[in-house]
Specification:
The protein is an alpha/beta fold and about 300 residues long. The chain has one domain: Histone deacetylase domain (Arginase, Chain A). Helix content is about 40%, strand content about 15%.
Length: about 300
């Protein structure tokens, strides 16, 4: 498999307070693990800057400008109790969305089979007009809109296995039948959304997991609910919101997955994409706050993308 990997040094310049779980070391450990011998065949590119027009397909331009104005020239500013911006935050967020769009370009044109972007800040909590949950812009939503606008994709599927529900992605596409959103997540847990009854216009598939759930429950949710619904949607592209905080080591939740579970889920989504959209998969990193759990899970996920 030809797998493209995006990252950028700007991601470590998005500073957060001491002790904050969404910290620069997350990028450092991912970069380190993907330098190992088994990943030498990765195609590596630096994340480009998204244009404001690209982001404005998912968020109003006034919101983008509001975030830009909030970024300080020094120090840190809290947008809410969890979400912080520093002088490097706007560039980091622009490059995260830019990598998402560039990944779509490369996959949709057949230059690569799939792509993985390791970036921060993450994106799936960012709603249409609200930055929250460590997230400024919703990179998966930007990517989906880019696939539609730039490549004529009629239907895009987003599958989110972060342990926290992607309320932002659900919010942006709630009434849009051209984008399918599926999520496995612990419930109850932040941000409080993601009930089975939340179905949008028939395009939302929530499969919540209970605290203490393990790989068996996760695999059942994927096999029984998510994959059949995704395949029935017949997408032209599959986007993965790849959060790794459902790992058993993670401090922010109580789901007990292993890196083998993430590799299995990745292969299931790749096989579904093979059947529906010529294998086109773009993966965008979301959460994962234990550095060992994150690095091992990313290695398993990217290894699966590469066909290992």
């Amino acid at each position: 498999m030809r797998t493209l990997y995006f990252c950028h040094a700007a991601y470590v310049e998005h500073a957060t307070p001491l002790g904050h779980p969404e910290r620069p070391d997350r990028i450092r450990v991912v970069e380190q693990v993907l330098e190992q011998e088994g990943f030498q065949d990765l195609i590596r590119e630096e994340a480009p800057l998204a244009t404001l027009d690209q982001i404005a397909r998912a968020h109003p331009r006034s919101f983008v400008e509001l975030i830009q104005r909030a970024v300080p020239s020094e120090g840190m500013v809290r947008l809410d109790s969890d979400t912080v911006v520093s002088p490097g935050s706007f560039e980091a967020a622009l490059r995260a969305s830019g990598a998402a769009c560039a990944a779509v370009d490369e996959v949709m044109t057949g230059k690569v089979d799939n792509a993985f972007s390791a970036h921060r800040p993450p994106g799936h909590h960012a709603e249409h007009m609200t930055a929250m949950g460590f997230c400024l812009f919703n990179h998966a939503a930007v990517a989906a809109r880019h696939a539609q606008a730039a490549h004529g994709a009629e239907r895009v599927a987003i599958m989110d296995f972060d342990v926290h529900h992607g309320n932002g992605t659900q919010d942006i596409f709630w009434s849009d039948p051209t984008v399918f959103y599926a999520s496995t997540h612990q419930m109850p847990l932040y941000p409080g959304t993601g009930a089975i009854s939340e179905t949008g216009c028939g395009n939302i598939c929530n499969a919540p997991l209970f605290a203490g759930a393990d790989g068996v429950s996760f695999r059942e949710a994927m096999s029984d609910k998510v994959i059949p619904a995704l395949e029935a949607f017949r997408p032209d592209l599959v986007i993965i919101s790849a959060g790794f905080d459902a790992h058993h080591r993670d401090p922010l939740a109580e789901v007990n997955l292993t890196e083998a579970d993430f590799a299995w889920a990745t292969r299931q989504l790749m096989e579904a994409a093979d059947r529906s959209c010529k294998g086109r998969v773009v993966s965008l990193m979301e959460g994962g706050y234990d550095l060992i759990g994150l690095s091992r899970s990313v290695a398993a996920h990217v290894g699966a993308l590469m066909g290992h």
